[in-house]
Amino acid sequence: AGPAHDGPAGPVVAVPGELDLARVEAVRAELFAQLAEVSDGARLTVDLRPTTYLPSAGIGLLLEVIEHARARGVDLRVLTEPGGMPARAFALAGLPTFDDRRSPSQ
Questions:
Q1: Which of 48, 65, 73, 97 has its Cβ near the most Cβ atoms within 10 Å?
Q2: Long-range contact list for 89-93, CB < 8 A, 24+ apart?
């Protein structure tokens, strides 16, 4: 994951490239570090628009992060490009994502 930057509703962490088994531990560390920095009830956005490959290891990591965020009351948003590979993977898993207009999609 890249370094977080501030978006209009809180920090945004972009995940460029492949989120495969080789990168999942490094991305996990970054996402959990960002979660630790946000207040309970705040929003954190994970931007998957620059993600080019999202196999099951990456989906599993994102499910883990979503569960941890929910337990803390953090509003975790997963931002995808409509019709992109991450959006399709989330749709197959029955998980909501948000496009760049912040509207929920399924």
A1: 48
A2: 89/54, 89/59, 90/59, 93/59, 93/63
Q: Which backbone phi and psi does 50 adopt, to 5 degrees?
A: -85, 5
What's the whole-model pTM score? Answer: 0.82
C-alpha 3/C-alpha 33 separation (Å) is 11
For the segment 43-86, what is each residue's pLDDT rounded down to a tens digit? Answer: 999 999 999 999 999 999 999 999 999 999 999 999 999 888 88
Q: Is 100 helix (H, G, I), strand (E, B) or coil?
A: coil
49's tokens: 């628009």
Helix (H, G, I), strand (E, B) or coil at 76: strand
Rg of the chain, C-alpha, whole Å? 12
> Which of the 8 DSSP states describes residue 35?
H
Residue 92: HSE in the Cβ half-sphere, 13 Å Cα cutoff:
11
